[in-house]
């Protein structure tokens, strides 16, 4: 292998160094509060892309027999722990295990109230889907109170709307008795979090339904290109700062219960973000990482599949299964995790 580069290769290596630096910064950002630099925190969204670009650089230098492949190769290998949060390949699930219960999380996008997708009778179709999958507990984000949505097999529920006049909020439906419930009111936002203490046979769990601050981004590259980039970066950065505050309110509430916790979230962020990292530090595991398969897509950003919805659970619980559903009745896809009693 050689180290000498021609003029064209020197230009390529300059770009290699730039994207290598971007990847290194993205690795560090999960440990840096967005309040420190809202602008820098946005780089974290590009971590998978930066990893892929550096992988391509490494392949190029190997094919040209240049030792410069070491830069990107070492950077990509050093981020191996992040790969497991993007793509996992677990053994066959234990979904047939006896004495289990399932928890589903689903951002239903107001049941297509404003006809975002070309689909009719969305509330009825989602009701039918949930009845067929039959989870013990369902957490909804972007929930809308509509007569067409019925879950007769779920006698216990907790619906929370941000204002008395609004029918938009967040909800938990359960087949099992709810003995306590509460809300975590995020200030100056339409987003919110609630919880319900549920008795499943002889066990009691605290289930959270959480909707962290929205980024207010239309998932279309053509639309984003027309936006004022400075305003877009400022808006996303401010949302990350709010998410940090909301995650702190959520973890503070963790201290109010001795029951094992299951957190169903629309994070509006990546699983390797600062907020996800902070939540997992509170004795939680990510059900997708433990029992999922593949990319774990929960949201389509144009051509790019993202995992911005998650089910975290207390480590004292045994996660036996995780499912991603390819159900296009919202801009999000439902997810479900199974736990052993």
Automatic annotation (TrEMBL):
InterPro entries: Endo/exonu/phosph_ase_sf, Endo/exonuclease/phosphatase, TDP2-like. SUPFAM superfamilies: DNase I-like (SSF56219). CDD domains: EEP-2 (cd09084). The chain crosses the membrane at residues 12-32, 38-62, 69-89. Gene3D superfamilies: Endonuclease/exonuclease/phosphatase. The keyword Acetylation does not apply. It holds the Pfam family Exo_endo_phos. Residues 104-332 form the Endonuclease/exonuclease/phosphatase domain. GO terms for molecular function: endonuclease activity. Keywords: DNA damage, DNA repair, Endonuclease, Hydrolase, Magnesium, Membrane, Metal-binding, Nuclease, Transmembrane, Transmembrane helix. Its cofactor is Mn(2+); Mg(2+). It comes from the Bacteria. This is Endonuclease/exonuclease/phosphatase family protein. The lineage of its organism: Bacteria, Pseudomonadati, Bacteroidota, Flavobacteriia, Flavobacteriales.
